[in-house]
Amino acid sequence: MKEYDIAVIGGGPAGMMAAMAASKTSKVILLEKNPSLGRKLLLTGGGRCNITNNKPVKKLLNSFDNKNFLKHSFYTLSNEKLLSFFQDNGLNFIEEDDNRIFPETEKSGDVLEVISDNLKDVVISYNYEVTSITDNFVINGEIKADKVIVATGGITYPHTGCSPKNYFLTSQPITDIKYGLVPLITKKDLSDIAGVTLYDVVISYKKVKVKGNVLISHVGLTGPGIINISNEISKSISYNLLDENPDVNVEIAIDLCSGLTREDLKEKFSLDFQHKGKTMIKNYLKLFLTNKFIDFFLDEIGLDGETQLSRINKKSKNALIENLKRFTFEINGFNENLAKVTIGGIDLSNVNPKTIESTLIPNLYFAGEILDLHGPTGGYNLKIAFSTGYLAGLSAGKK
After folding, report:
1. Counting runs of H as helices and runs of E as strands, what totals does the chain give?
2. Burial class of 147 by CB neighbour count within 10 A (0 to 12, 13 to 18, 19+)
3. pLDDT tens digit sequence for 192-211
4. pLDDT class for 159, splitting at 50, 70, 90?
5. Residue 349 to residues 66, 69, 175: CA-CA distances in angstroms?
6. Is 327:254 a contact under the CB 8 Å cutoff?
7. Cα 193 to Cα 142: distance, rounded to the nearest angstrom
8. Bridge partner residues of 133 (DSSP)
9. Residues facing 124 on adjacent strands
10. In whole angstroms, what is the distance from residue 47 CA to residue 103 CA?
């Protein structure tokens, strides 16, 4: 039986970072189900790898439900330390809108290459699927470790090696498992306006509001604004993907004119409808809406696009204002194949945030998406993976 100080299960961003950190002081083996490392890392940021979000730590933490749990790991591997590591290895970065950080080369493969080059002291076993871990850390009956770090990810992108089975490799309690950062399927067929983008709108679901672009797809809605609010929708529905598929039946509202209040629109309409009375409403709405969306919008509220402004009555004018400020869509599903993260995982109440070690099973650690941690789109989730992986590796590597 082969023996190691530490066995890391899972060669994604969290597992690789954990193995790298632990290998500074310990004999480490990294067990990867696939024939290569970092398959999901290569997919992130559309293949460009949105490696982190560069907001100040306090502001960054406020973007997460479990900010108190993440605090220690985020300070242990700060953005400055993370980016310096890559820069010291010859990879520089660019910062885009909303503090998103990408490699200067815009290639996720270059990020993976730097990490892989720093795993030279780690024994890597490819095409190795872990099916059992005993209480004394014997893996598959053939590898013995003093400590184990589980970094097997969530359930999204199953072709990268993620599997529901991984939640049961240990006896650690888990929360409900749900889709996160997932496009929404609408009850109404939107294929005729697929490809239309609604820019800088505000999406509302219950008391939650998210600002961002919305892209209309053949089956529903996607884009950054929708992807982020999908987390709130998913969390509000009672389901567990380990047992059942979600029954989605909710409504979202989109403020198509977030820069104007209802009063602003009322005043503008009063003036414009008087002075531009011969203008057809479909042409007038170009001031507020994307051209290709106008006909759909007018059809939904029952107004003929060729009606002149001077002929629009008070009831129709109020309907225009109300729908510009609150245009609703009925949502009846998640586009599950495109979910970016998993909501739920290892219950954090049984994990020490200062070490990422189980409080139930000594010398058992977790990192990354296997934990009940998730954030919005924009580099937040890779930040979780790298920081928790690094802290788990450091903690396990202490003698």
Report:
1. 12, 19
2. buried
3. 999 999 999 999 999 999 99
4. confident
5. 11, 9, 10
6. yes
7. 56
8. 139
9. 30
10. 11
